[in-house]
Amino acid sequence: MAAQAESWSWFTALAVGVSLFKCLFINAYHSTDFEVHRNWLAITNSLPLSRWYHENSSEWTLDYPPLFAWLERGLAQAARHWDGDMLRLDNLNYASPATVLFQRLSVVCTDLLFIYAARECCRCIRVQKAPQVILCRPSFVLAVLLLWNFGLLIVDHIHFQYNGFLFGFLLLSVARHLQSRHLQGALLFAVLLNLKHIFLYVAPAYGIFLLRSYCFTLDRPDGSIRWSSFAPLRLLALGGIVISVFALSFGPFVAMGQLSQVVSRLFPFRRGLCHAYWAPNAWALYSGADKALAVLGVRLKLLQEAELPRAAMTGGLVQEIQHAVLPSVPPAATLLCTVLAILPALVSIWRHRRGNRAFLRCLLLCALASFLFGWHVHEKAILLAVLPLSILAVESREDAGIFLVLSTTGHYSLFPLLFTPAEMIIKVCLMLMFTIYSFTALGNLHRSQGSLLRPMEVAYLLGLATVAIACEFIFPLSPWRQKLPFLPLLATSVYCAVGVSYSFLRLYATLLRIDDKRKQL
């Protein structure tokens, strides 16, 4: 027992180090999300439950599921001992030093769940023989990739959100499934859905995997389902867990007849296809193509510029938009595209019992498909794929190559979140350090199996570096800055969308390759 505790002392050092490092950003720039969460503290503290999802005196209305609202309520009980003025509904944009300190530390403290989840994921790593040198162990590399993830550092501890706490639930749930503790994994995921509904992106992977691998206990010799092995008690246990969590979360609002009001807050389809800054997905490519066709049409005098819709999609506002040349995309079309994109992955894990790693791969494909084709996707949602992919990256050379492309592309796409000059050096240095470590550590782990990246991938990443230099350093000094202020956002979204799409296709290729090997056997 003492030897085992000693062998994990390095993890404690990493966790303490990153927690202290996060405290360095207490006085850094914070986004409007800081005021969003301060207002939610005030709402849940000042108003009765029946008014939480009706309050609209601020534009930052409560639009997370009920369990997160109760988390804010709990934080509000501690906040009153720091600065009670932050809990006043009429105190909009209040950011006293005590308020800033409290909210920053609340993120650091809730990250303790993420730290525990990262440790559990490290315990799930499969290695034939762990190296003697701690720095070269897959578990150590994974711990660094998770705890020191560039995206989480800037999104949570500079921009300001509670993603670490939420991803703690996701990674802990994944770890429990990798450990074949499926009921615990299902419980954690059900709680997570009631904390933030964006994780519905990966719910199909959970549903199909648990139904196939937990509720059906035996297979036929060819690996297909033995229908007679269906265990109804297991299905009842899973259903009881999920229903109980949702009943606890939404039950009070159902009793008050407010379910439709809560749902309207959670799914605001009026916000439009793209976020204020386009997430690097298929709709960024689609909207970019629409703008290119509009410009070409005006140049060729096929279109009249005065008749085209105003350039709202990259104008920094959240609103409904109309494409100028290509057909506008309704929410139903994005849903259809998402379903079609995840269907082969779901069919793959349904037809044959593929093991817990196949579930993780399916989860990643669902996350990326929803990111690429979903409605009003936030750029920060790329972390839903980057973080779980870290687990596969330390076990497989091919997955490590996909991780390097996806993490580098996805992390750079977060750069526009920090646009103040003071944070420029911070985001550049943090990303360089994380990227260099990722390339070096994963390269050493898989050194005997050859290069991690293909020549085309290397060329793409070099092009990404060129785009970054142009957008971050050259464009601000050019005369185009005044005339085309959102050109860097468009270039970043479109170029990064290519990398994310490529990573999605490569992940699918690995899944299909596994299926082909199974058929040959």
TrEMBL record:
Chief place where the protein resides: endoplasmic reticulum
Subcellular localization, as worded in the UniProt entry: Endoplasmic reticulum membrane
Transmembrane segments annotated in the record for this chain: 138-155, 198-215, 235-255, 332-351, 358-377, 424-446, 458-480, 486-509
The entry's keywords: Endoplasmic reticulum, Glycosyltransferase, Membrane, Transferase, Transmembrane, Transmembrane helix
Enzyme class: transferase
GO CC field: endoplasmic reticulum membrane
Associated pathway: Protein modification; protein glycosylation
Membrane topology listed for this record: Multi-pass membrane protein
GO molecular function: dolichyl pyrophosphate Glc1Man9GlcNAc2 alpha-1,3-glucosyltransferase activity
GO biological process: protein N-linked glycosylation
Coiled-coil segments: none
Entry EC number(s): 2.4.1.-
Family: Belongs to the ALG6/ALG8 glucosyltransferase family.
Protein name: Alpha-1,3-glucosyltransferase
